[in-house]
């Protein structure tokens, strides 16, 4: 079968900016930060106080009580984002189309809030009886499975867990399935809800969380800021999308992945470069075609410098003409959901002609000497973009996007 071009026809987002994609893009496109003081009562026990928390999210606005009982917060995020994505795509998923549709989600921690609470109940409160709903709440595939049942989806449904690259791996594999004709439609993305005491203390121990804010690529950057939320995109064959008059946000045209094979926490430029080259090759384009890169850009000292080195290795002299920004400076590092939020931002940037900035930027770092679109959004008509995700464990996943107006 001839490979098909793959369109994104629906996007749904839950983030620190609100429960919709529109609220997310309004915040990110304006350069407004969603980073603020955390709300959990245990925040005083942490060395860091700020996060990009989806503090406005109220499960009761989206679910009946019986659903809330068996859905952890991370799964609730995934379902809400999927509902928005499907609604905005205009698709009616039923019958044969349901059997030809896939769901692929990513999550690094899964039902961490439920797990943490029940360990506390067991070891601190000495509880010996537990709800039979705990396992369904904890399992990492809960979001994908509930999306499948809610929409009557009978095709491939699974969850990827590759730390901070989870969502990009999920979207990339879904893209390949649609392109090759294995399925006709796919819902793909990631979700994460990491704000539990146990997980936050674990991140504290790594000493990579900033005590104030996230300022990627700045000389005085001090680390990442954790975020939460979900992003889901609807993928379908471009020809089918056009035939039904669907909105097209853009195309996914390439996907590349690699492993550093090096270290659990220290990134390697060669691995990141390999994934970018693989995405370019998969899309069939030269490096010079890329105009924008949504960087992994965590705000940690080693990650930012290593990513910039990798970009220069891949793009050579063209790196001087690239726009490179990190939207994590606004929506935080949402771990397994990060790539999904960044895919949404990249698609919106291509469609709107507005490149979101790297917020909180203070002073240049010679090790990050690229145009990082500091502090203010920039108008730019871009045809091709990459979105990078480089995870702990040395697992790299890169998506290549094309503007909807290009190559019609």
The CATH homologous superfamily of the largest domain is termed Thiolase/Chalcone synthase
The ordered string of helix (H) and strand (E) elements is EHEEHHHEHHHEHEHEHEHEHEHHEEEE
> Can you list the strand order of the major beta sheet?
5-4-6-7-1-8-14-13-9-10
Largest sheet: number of strands, sense, barrel closure: 10 strands, mixed
Fill in the CATH topology of the largest domain: Peroxisomal Thiolase, Chain A, domain 1
- What number of domains? 2
Structural class by helix and strand composition = alpha/beta
Shape: globular
Low-confidence stretches: none
How would you describe this structure to a colleague?
With 408 residues, the protein is of the alpha/beta class. The chain has two domains: 238 residues, Peroxisomal Thiolase, Chain A, domain 1 (3-Layer(aba) Sandwich); 150 residues, Peroxisomal Thiolase, Chain A, domain 1 (3-Layer(aba) Sandwich), CATH 3.40.47.10. The protein has 14 helices and 14 strands. A ten-stranded mixed beta sheet has the order 5-4-6-7-1-8-14-13-9-10, with helices on both faces. The chain has a two-stranded antiparallel sheet with strand order 2-3. A two-stranded antiparallel sheet has the order 11-12. Helix 11 crosses helix 12. The longest helix is centred in the N-terminal third of the chain and has 17 residues. The model has no long low-confidence stretch (mean pLDDT 96).
């Amino acid at each position: 079968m001839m490979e098909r071009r793959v369109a994104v026809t629906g996007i749904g987002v839950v983030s620190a900016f609100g429960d919709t994609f529109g609220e997310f893009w309004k915040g990110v496109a304006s350069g407004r930060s969603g980073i603020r003081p955390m709300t959990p009562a245990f925040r005083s026990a942490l060395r860091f106080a700020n996060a990009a928390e989806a503090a406005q999210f109220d499960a009761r606005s989206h679910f009946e009580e019986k659903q809330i009982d068996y859905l952890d917060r991370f799964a609730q995020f995934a379902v809400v984002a999927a509902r928005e994505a499907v609604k905005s795509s205009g698709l009616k998923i039923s019958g044969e189309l349901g059997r030809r549709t896939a769901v692929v989600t990513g999550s690094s921690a899964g039902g961490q809030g439920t797990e943490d609470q029940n360990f506390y109940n067991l070891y601190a409160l000495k509880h010996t009886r537990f709800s039979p709903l705990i396992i369904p709440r904890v399992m990492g595939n809960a979001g994908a499975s509930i999306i499948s049942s809610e929409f009557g989806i009978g095709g491939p449904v699974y969850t990827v867990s590759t730390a901070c690259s989870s969502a990009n791996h999920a979207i990339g594999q879904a893209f390949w399935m649609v392109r090759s004709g294995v399925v006709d439609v796919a819902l793909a993305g990631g979700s994460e809800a990491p704000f539990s005491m146990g997980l936050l203390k674990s991140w504290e121990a790594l000493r990579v969380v900033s005590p104030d804010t996230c300022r990627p690529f700045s000389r005085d950057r001090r680390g990442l800021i954790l975020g939460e939320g979900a992003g889901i995109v609807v993928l379908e064959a471009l020809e089918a999308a056009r035939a039904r008059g669907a909105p097209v946000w853009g195309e996914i045209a390439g996907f590349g992945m690699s492993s550093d094979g090096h270290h659990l926490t220290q990134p390697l430029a060669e691995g990141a470069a390999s994934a970018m080259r693989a995405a370019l090759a998969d899309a069939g384009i030269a490096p010079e075609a890329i105009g924008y890169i949504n960087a992994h850009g965590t705000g940690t000292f080693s990650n930012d410098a290593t990513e910039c080195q990798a970009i220069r290795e891949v793009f050579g002299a063209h790196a001087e003409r690239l726009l490179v920004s990190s939207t994590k400076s606004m929506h935080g590092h949402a771990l397994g959901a990060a790539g999904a939020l960044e895919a949404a931002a990249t698609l919106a940037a291509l469609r709107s002609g507005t490149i979101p900035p790297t917020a909180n930027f203070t002073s240049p770092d010679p090790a990050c000497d690229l145009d990082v679109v500091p502090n203010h959004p920039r108008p730019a008509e871009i045809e091709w973009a990459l979105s990078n995700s480089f995870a702990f464990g040395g697992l790299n996943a890169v998506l290549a996007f094309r503007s909807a107006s290009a190559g019609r």
